Target: Ferritin
Amino acid sequence: MKDLLRIKSLISADIELLLNQQVKKEALSSSIYLAMASWCNRNGYDFSSEYFFKQADEERHHQLKFYKYILDMGGNAVSPEVTGIKQEYNSFREVFEEALDQEISVTNAIKNIYARCMKEQDFVTMEFLNWFLKEQREEEYKARRALELFEVIGEEGTGRWQIDKHVGQIKYDSEA
Model:
Protein backbone atom coordinates (compact mmCIF):
# COMPACT_ATOMS: atom_id res chain seq x y z
CA MET A 1 0.00 0.00 0.00
CA LYS A 2 2.86 2.42 0.78
CA ASP A 3 4.22 2.11 -2.78
CA LEU A 4 0.77 2.79 -4.18
CA LEU A 5 0.47 5.92 -2.03
CA ARG A 6 3.92 7.10 -3.10
CA ILE A 7 2.90 6.84 -6.75
CA LYS A 8 0.04 9.22 -6.03
CA SER A 9 2.34 11.71 -4.29
CA LEU A 10 3.65 14.57 -6.37
CA ILE A 11 6.82 14.91 -4.28
CA SER A 12 9.62 12.43 -3.72
CA ALA A 13 10.23 10.81 -0.37
CA ASP A 14 13.42 12.89 0.01
CA ILE A 15 11.62 16.17 -0.66
CA GLU A 16 8.81 15.15 1.69
CA LEU A 17 11.36 14.45 4.43
CA LEU A 18 13.02 17.85 3.91
CA LEU A 19 9.66 19.61 3.93
CA ASN A 20 8.67 17.85 7.17
CA GLN A 21 11.99 18.92 8.67
CA GLN A 22 11.11 22.47 7.65
CA VAL A 23 7.72 22.13 9.34
CA LYS A 24 9.61 21.32 12.53
CA LYS A 25 12.08 24.18 11.98
CA GLU A 26 9.21 26.64 11.59
CA ALA A 27 7.52 25.28 14.73
CA LEU A 28 10.83 25.60 16.57
CA SER A 29 11.20 29.20 15.36
CA SER A 30 7.70 30.03 16.56
CA SER A 31 8.45 28.55 19.99
CA ILE A 32 11.79 30.37 20.20
CA TYR A 33 10.08 33.66 19.40
CA LEU A 34 7.43 33.00 22.06
CA ALA A 35 10.20 32.44 24.60
CA MET A 36 11.88 35.67 23.45
CA ALA A 37 8.58 37.53 23.77
CA SER A 38 8.19 36.20 27.29
CA TRP A 39 11.74 37.16 28.27
CA CYS A 40 11.28 40.67 26.85
CA ASN A 41 7.97 41.04 28.66
CA ARG A 42 9.45 39.91 31.99
CA ASN A 43 12.31 42.37 31.58
CA GLY A 44 10.20 45.40 30.68
CA TYR A 45 10.76 45.48 26.91
CA ASP A 46 7.11 45.70 25.93
CA PHE A 47 7.57 46.75 22.29
CA SER A 48 10.11 44.01 21.67
CA SER A 49 7.79 41.54 23.35
CA GLU A 50 5.05 42.48 20.86
CA TYR A 51 7.56 42.26 17.99
CA PHE A 52 8.46 38.70 18.98
CA PHE A 53 4.81 37.70 19.47
CA LYS A 54 4.19 38.81 15.86
CA GLN A 55 7.27 36.89 14.72
CA ALA A 56 5.98 33.77 16.50
CA ASP A 57 2.63 34.12 14.70
CA GLU A 58 4.39 34.46 11.33
CA GLU A 59 6.50 31.37 11.93
CA ARG A 60 3.41 29.41 12.91
CA HIS A 61 1.78 30.56 9.67
CA HIS A 62 4.85 29.40 7.72
CA GLN A 63 4.72 26.04 9.50
CA LEU A 64 1.12 25.56 8.44
CA LYS A 65 1.88 26.56 4.83
CA PHE A 66 4.56 23.86 4.61
CA TYR A 67 2.29 21.35 6.38
CA LYS A 68 -0.62 21.99 4.04
CA TYR A 69 1.62 21.89 0.97
CA ILE A 70 2.87 18.42 1.91
CA LEU A 71 -0.73 17.24 2.26
CA ASP A 72 -1.81 18.93 -0.97
CA MET A 73 0.96 17.12 -2.80
CA GLY A 74 -0.22 13.74 -1.49
CA GLY A 75 2.50 13.45 1.12
CA ASN A 76 2.39 12.62 4.80
CA ALA A 77 2.74 15.77 6.90
CA VAL A 78 4.10 15.08 10.38
CA SER A 79 3.14 17.17 13.39
CA PRO A 80 6.45 18.03 15.06
CA GLU A 81 7.47 17.74 18.67
CA VAL A 82 9.35 20.82 19.82
CA THR A 83 11.37 20.68 23.02
CA GLY A 84 14.42 22.27 24.60
CA ILE A 85 13.46 25.89 24.01
CA LYS A 86 15.80 28.36 25.71
CA GLN A 87 13.86 30.51 28.16
CA GLU A 88 16.54 32.79 29.60
CA TYR A 89 18.93 35.21 27.93
CA ASN A 90 21.97 37.00 29.32
CA SER A 91 21.09 40.33 27.75
CA PHE A 92 18.60 42.23 25.64
CA ARG A 93 21.13 42.25 22.79
CA GLU A 94 21.57 38.45 22.97
CA VAL A 95 17.86 38.01 22.23
CA PHE A 96 18.26 39.85 18.94
CA GLU A 97 21.54 38.15 18.06
CA GLU A 98 19.86 34.78 18.44
CA ALA A 99 16.82 35.95 16.46
CA LEU A 100 19.08 36.83 13.53
CA ASP A 101 20.89 33.49 13.83
CA GLN A 102 17.52 31.72 13.76
CA GLU A 103 16.42 33.54 10.61
CA ILE A 104 19.70 32.74 8.86
CA SER A 105 19.27 29.09 9.83
CA VAL A 106 15.75 29.03 8.37
CA THR A 107 16.96 30.65 5.15
CA ASN A 108 19.73 28.08 4.78
CA ALA A 109 17.29 25.21 5.35
CA ILE A 110 14.95 26.54 2.65
CA LYS A 111 17.86 26.98 0.26
CA ASN A 112 18.82 23.35 0.95
CA ILE A 113 15.31 22.18 0.03
CA TYR A 114 15.41 24.36 -3.10
CA ALA A 115 18.77 22.86 -4.13
CA ARG A 116 17.36 19.35 -3.72
CA CYS A 117 14.32 20.32 -5.79
CA MET A 118 16.60 21.61 -8.55
CA LYS A 119 18.45 18.29 -8.56
CA GLU A 120 15.15 16.39 -8.83
CA GLN A 121 13.62 18.93 -11.20
CA ASP A 122 10.71 19.39 -8.79
CA PHE A 123 9.64 22.70 -10.32
CA VAL A 124 6.32 22.78 -8.49
CA THR A 125 7.98 22.73 -5.08
CA MET A 126 10.58 25.24 -6.26
CA GLU A 127 7.78 27.62 -7.20
CA PHE A 128 6.20 27.06 -3.78
CA LEU A 129 9.52 27.83 -2.07
CA ASN A 130 9.95 31.12 -3.96
CA TRP A 131 7.46 32.78 -1.62
CA PHE A 132 9.50 31.64 1.39
CA LEU A 133 12.76 32.90 -0.10
CA LYS A 134 11.24 36.35 -0.54
CA GLU A 135 9.83 36.17 2.99
CA GLN A 136 13.23 35.25 4.41
CA ARG A 137 14.78 38.25 2.71
CA GLU A 138 12.36 40.40 4.72
CA GLU A 139 12.85 38.42 7.94
CA GLU A 140 16.63 38.63 7.81
CA TYR A 141 16.49 42.33 6.93
CA LYS A 142 14.27 43.10 9.93
CA ALA A 143 16.42 41.00 12.28
CA ARG A 144 19.60 42.73 11.07
CA ARG A 145 18.05 46.19 11.41
CA ALA A 146 16.90 45.39 14.94
CA LEU A 147 20.41 44.31 15.88
CA GLU A 148 21.88 47.41 14.22
CA LEU A 149 19.86 49.55 16.63
CA PHE A 150 22.21 48.42 19.39
CA GLU A 151 25.13 49.94 17.48
CA VAL A 152 23.35 53.09 16.32
CA ILE A 153 21.60 53.96 19.59
CA GLY A 154 23.84 52.21 22.12
CA GLU A 155 22.68 50.57 25.32
CA GLU A 156 23.82 53.15 27.86
CA GLY A 157 21.39 55.38 29.72
CA THR A 158 18.01 55.18 28.02
CA GLY A 159 19.49 53.32 25.04
CA ARG A 160 17.76 49.99 25.65
CA TRP A 161 14.46 51.81 26.13
CA GLN A 162 15.00 53.62 22.80
CA ILE A 163 15.92 50.36 21.07
CA ASP A 164 12.81 48.70 22.46
CA LYS A 165 10.70 51.62 21.26
CA HIS A 166 12.12 51.45 17.70
CA VAL A 167 12.05 47.65 17.17
CA GLY A 168 8.36 47.54 16.33
CA GLN A 169 8.76 50.32 13.78
CA ILE A 170 11.17 48.42 11.53
CA LYS A 171 9.64 48.01 8.09
CA TYR A 172 10.82 46.31 4.94
CA ASP A 173 10.01 47.68 1.53
CA SER A 174 11.15 45.31 -1.20
CA GLU A 175 10.32 47.92 -3.85
CA ALA A 176 12.80 50.49 -2.51
Remarks:
- The helical segments are 2-8, 13-42, 46-72, 92-120, 123-153, 159-167.
- The mean pLDDT is 94.
